[in-house]
Amino acid sequence: PVDVAGRIANLLGANNRAAVVHAVAGVDLDVRAGEVIGVVGESGCGKSTLGRVIADISPATEGEVSYQGKRLQDMTAPERRAYALGVQMIFQNPMASLNPRMRVLDIIGEAPVVHGIVPAAKKTEYVAGLMRQVGLDPEYAQRYPHQFSGGQRQRIGIARALALKPRLIVCDEAVAALDVSIQAQVLNLFLELRREFDLTYLFISHNLGVVGHVSDRVVIMYLGRVVEVAPTDVVFNRPNHPYTQALLAELPTLETTRRAYQPIKGELPSPLRPPTGCSFHPRCPHAMPRCAAELPALRTLADGHASACHLNDLQPATPA
Ligand code: SF4
Ligand code: MG
To answer: Which family does the similarity line name (predicted)?
Structure first.
């Protein structure tokens, strides 16, 4: 059992003890190989930063990322490049991340040739295989991004990420821009590819409903801090943190348990000047005087379930 309230995280290891993330204040993330972790929060909560730090696109302002027992900053340049290659990102707007002047063949096939993953002579064949795997006709390899629909462009982005043989894919609002019906198709594609390519996912979204559909565990973030980490079924059926409960109350398909919770009130405060103590206190229906004064620590309630709320001090933690 991994103590999710512990300091450091374990990201995609062959033996489940490989990489470590302590990237954003209060983030202690433990990702097991093959897992889908959802990261949920309003915009500005730090979830995109967390993804970018893990992908080694942005530097960690606090804490560190390590992989196979080695901190990124202690790696040799080739080790660090290999790490970064093994973590690929898929973004919300595929149009913005696909070069409009490049053919799909090159968008997907250029980087794997450059990185020696596939010989140049095999590029067309390699790209065709990837296109088939994401549900695109390889005949379209000579086309440009604008000749595809939004859903197809996102499939191109997925094929481009897969081409580099990543271990971890960070999806940052990867389906947010798509129609609801297309969203479901792309989410299902992610799940199919997970099995086929033995992938681990970090699925970042403002939408708890989307994340709940695909994730094994969910990390709830609020204003740069993790407020709750739990297996997905616990998040949906026995959420501990009042913010998580408020997110559930806002989901369109309300079930009885969720009706018990109050939707979130008020505006999101500036992440640059978060409220004192528990930063959720101005919006929390259960706030006590202590909440404005004291930052609640992320506390383990049960195996794999942690929450940062002073209410948990009022009752003994559920035995694991
Ligand atoms: Fe609400 Fe207080 Fe818990 Fe924060 S610590 S979520 S303000 S009850
Ligand atoms: Mg974001």
So the answer is: Belongs to the ABC transporter superfamily.
- Dihedral angle of Cα 183, 189, 194, 195, to the nearest 10 degrees: 140
The answer for residues whose C-beta is within 8 angstroms of residue 283's C-beta and 6 or more apart is 243, 246, 264, 265, 266
74, 9, 72, 80: which is closest to 39 by C-alpha?
9
Amino acid at site 59: P
Sheet of 200-205, strands arranged across: 87-90, 168-172, 200-205, 36-40, 217-222, 225-231, 305-307, 299-302
pLDDT tens for 273-283 read 788 999 999 99
Burial class of residue 99, CB neighbours in 10 A (0-12, 13-18, 19+): exposed
Mean pLDDT in residue range 191-216: 87
Q: State the average pLDDT for the chain.
A: 81
Assess whether the C-beta atom of 287 lies below 6 angstroms from ligand 1. Answer: yes
> Residue 288 burial (CB < 10 Å; 0-12/13-18/19+)?
middle
> What pLDDT sits at residue 238?
92
Name the token pair of 199: 């992938």
Closest-approaching ligand to the CA atom of 51:
2
Pocket test for ligand 1, best of 222, 284, 290 (most atoms within 8 A of CB): 284
> From the CA of 286, how far away is ligand 1's center (Å)?
6
Share of the chain above pLDDT 90, in %: 36
Closest ligand to residue 92's CA: 2
What is this model's ipTM? 0.94
Is the distance from the beta carbon of residue 309 to the nearest atom of ligand 1 less than 6 Å? yes
Question: Among 309, 312, 315, which residue has the most ligand 1 atoms within 8 Å of its CB, making it the best to mutate?
Answer: 309
Rounded to 5 degrees, φ, ψ at 170 are -100, 115
CB count within 10 Å of CB 114 equals: 10
DSSP state of 59: -
Q: List pLDDT tens digits, range 16-43.
A: 333 444 444 445 566 677 888 899 988 7
